[in-house]
Amino acid sequence: MITKLKRILYSRKLLLSAFLLACFVVAGCAPAGITVPRGWSGGVVADGTLFIGAMDGKIVALNTTDGKRLWEVPLEDSVVAIYGSPTVAGDLVYLGGYHSGKMYAFAQDKIRWVYPRDRAFVDSTGKIAQIIGGAIIAQGKVFFGVDNGVVYALDAMTGDYVWEFPTGGKIWSTPAIFGDTLFVGSFDKKLYALDTATGNERWTFETQGAIVATPLVHDNTVYIGSFDRKLYAVDVTTGQEKWRFLEAKNWFWAKPLAKDNTIYASNLDGKGYALDARSGDKLVEFDLGSPVSASPVLVGNRVIVATENGAVYAIDVENKESNKLRGPLQTKDIKVYAPLTTDGVVVYMHTSDGKLYAFDAVDGSELNWSPISLKQAAVPPPPSQQSSGQGMNWGSIIALFASGIVLVLVFQRLFKRRGS
Fold first, then answer.
1. How far is C-alpha 406 from the chain's CA centre?
2. Which among 46, 167, 255, 281 could bridge 295 via Cys, Cβ 3.0 to 4.6 Å?
3. Residues 6+ apart with CB under 8 A from 207
4. Strand, coil or helix: what is 263?
5. Whole-model pTM?
């Protein structure tokens, strides 16, 4: 009796495994049209156009006046997550791809160049190395980090290789530049200062946690948050520590801002901190009610901060008082991770469901075209560009489900024979 019971339980476990395997096959072979949104790209505004990475793997250009889509280009034939924000220099827009492991330069709706040319960045094991942070353009070069731990410099016009510098850990952050020095944080807990011309190391500053935040350079000082729950002020020239802020209860993920000798730093502990830029003394602490991973923006005399639950606050830099502009998003599962973007009047917020919100920085009122879905094309592609792989191939899906059912039935017959 016990042996028979064990056989029944064992057969049911295998039947469940077979069913789950069938479901996994169906999910894994599903077309790109039904993949879940991925990435959390911020945007950049240039000449009345907002450039932003959509969650279906496209770079999208929007008219900031009416929200209409000017053009869009997929990074690859398959969906590529986009975490970094685009960067504009001249007539080119630069953006890195997560799954593709490549850096792209776009001239309007056409790709100008891609690097690496015929492959992807790889790590020490030969696997594709992802690009998570954004790029920065200066002195005719594109600077960015890859999660294989290497900082790269390319020619901004041609995409040709210039130099590289290996750190001791993954790089998720976007670099910053001051003069001829590039600053970038790494998972090896270090902040690196590199010569922009050669890539040679000038100094390193070690924290006690991984660094994913983008450095802020202000008044000959580099301000950087770390996963050790501290915010540091470091001398630009020497790399010597000036002060550290110790009161935060969680990681610093968002890039800090500076205004009138005050540093504004948001934290995953749900607090915003206003610190004296010279001493690091806390001036004011703001209770934001939810973690903050999205980098804030400065609009006039207001620091605009968005929490993960979608609540938006305006902090007045003169009286250091905060005012809630917008309540949290109505759906709890929708979050805000992407850096905020502004054109100096309007603030743009990219949410985890792929929508873009545009609202006034003074009163929080939405523009009449907001929100819009970045994942939904303004017009369908022409028939010449359509293929069975662009939409949901229901025939393939049904066939896969049928294959899964057949697989389960085969297991059932096998176990009936074993049990007889």
1. 41
2. 255
3. 189, 190, 191, 224, 226, 228, 230, 232
4. strand
5. 0.81
